[in-house]
Write a structure and sequence with these properties.
340 residues; alpha/beta; Arc Repressor Mutant, subunit A; Rossmann fold; 3 domains; six-stranded parallel sheet; six-stranded mixed sheet; 14 strands; 41% helix; elongated; WH_DNA-bd_sf; transcription regulation; DNA binding
Length: 340
């Protein structure tokens, strides 16, 4: 690193009156990278050293360094300083994407989100698996390190408090709605009305079977609103409904409708129908939540109700690109196929 030339590069920009001191420092460091005065892995001058050499205020230097971190050009290492993270000065933004897990429908969301953003935006993906400790740790360790945060939240008061520490203008909530203080953007699902409407439309078909079995695990990532709708539906339509914590391998039986939110349970049930020689859609019915390409194909199609995760991904990318506030509840649609 050539510190003297880097400081001169920053000072020389003072002749451009349209630059604020913050912009002067940001552009000066970018110019230093472009002119090979600094390179990937180099440690930048400390805030105090930069103050002495440029005469800029501590707050101005801190703001500039944070902007370069949000673009992914710099990174901050605790108690060590600021380091050059990339030589790519065309990189404009660094995004933290925190979701539940990489299930097939979330992969659809991610792929459309990533593709729609283009090449100049860095996306770092984290998974919390509905574990609050993991969720809290990821957010706390990444505060101030990103220009934007796109987060599928955990539904708890403690998780809300963690989210409220992030700048609202840099936060987009996806998938699950949570009520936070202040004004913030979200693109989310609605579960209670959507699931009830799906059950309602399927009611004549469900009544052809002797039992409607719903696998629901309390205190999990599964939306409690779906459970509320299931209970309401079986009561209003006098249907023999059963709620079980999970599917037990080998327990599949004819003359029943099975409803699961988890894909792993779905695959296990489908395997068992084949082993027992049962025909899906004839001997028994199956309903699944969250659609994907696989469910369209296997066993001549699995009936689902779902939002369009590809569209959600593109909408989230539009927010990142334009920073235009959005408050959207996406519509769940029933997709009827062979299984029910």
């Amino acid at each position: 690193m050539n510190k003297e030339k880097l400081f001169n590069e920053i000072k020389d920009l003072s002749i451009i009156n349209s630059f604020s001191k913050h912009e002067q420092l940001v552009q000066g460091i970018i110019n230093g990278l472009n002119h090979k005065l600094i390179a990937k892995g180099d440690m930048l001058p400390s805030v105090n050293e930069m103050m002495r050499e440029t005469g800029f205020a501590k707050e101005t230097i801190g703001k500039a360094y944070k902007e370069l971190i949000s673009r992914g050009i710099l990174e901050s290492k605790n108690r060590m300083g600021y380091f050059v993270a990339t030589d790519d000065t065309e990189q404009h933004l660094k995004v933290c994407l925190l979701i539940y897990a990489f299930d097939t429908f979330q992969e659809t969301f991610y792929q459309n989100f990533r593709d729609h953003l283009g090449d100049n935006i860095q996306v770092d993906v984290y998974f919390h698996h509905n574990n609050f400790s993991v969720f809290e740790s990821i957010i706390n360790s990444n505060k101030g390190q990103y220009g934007l945060y796109v987060i599928a939240p955990i539904e708890s008061n403690a998780a809300k408090e963690v989210l409220e520490q992030l700048p609202k203008e840099k936060l987009l909530i996806v998938d699950r709605y949570v009520k936070l203080k202040g004004d913030y953007s979200y693109i989310v699902q609605e579960f209670e009305k959507a699931s009830y409407n799906a059950f309602l439309e399927l009611a004549p078909r469900i009544k052809e079977f002797s039992e409607f079995v719903f696998f629901f695990k309390p205190s999990s990532a599964e939306p409690n609103e779906v459970l509320i709708s299931f209970k309401r539906f079986i009561k209003e339509f006098n249907i023999n409904g059963v709620i079980k914590n999970s599917y037990e391998a080998g327990s599949i039986a004819p003359d029943k409708v099975y409803f699961t939110i988890h894909n792993l349970e779905l695959w296990e049930m489908l395997k068992d129908t084949r082993v027992k020689g049962l025909k899906v859609g004839k001997d028994l019915g199956i309903l699944s939540h969250n659609d994907d390409n696989v469910k369209e194909i296997i066993f001549d199609g699995i009936t689902t109700f779902s939002i369009d995760f590809a569209h959600m991904g593109r909408l989230a990318a539009e927010f990142v690109l334009n920073l235009k506030p959005i408050k959207q509840v996406m519509e769940n649609k029933l997709i009827r196929r062979n299984s029910l």
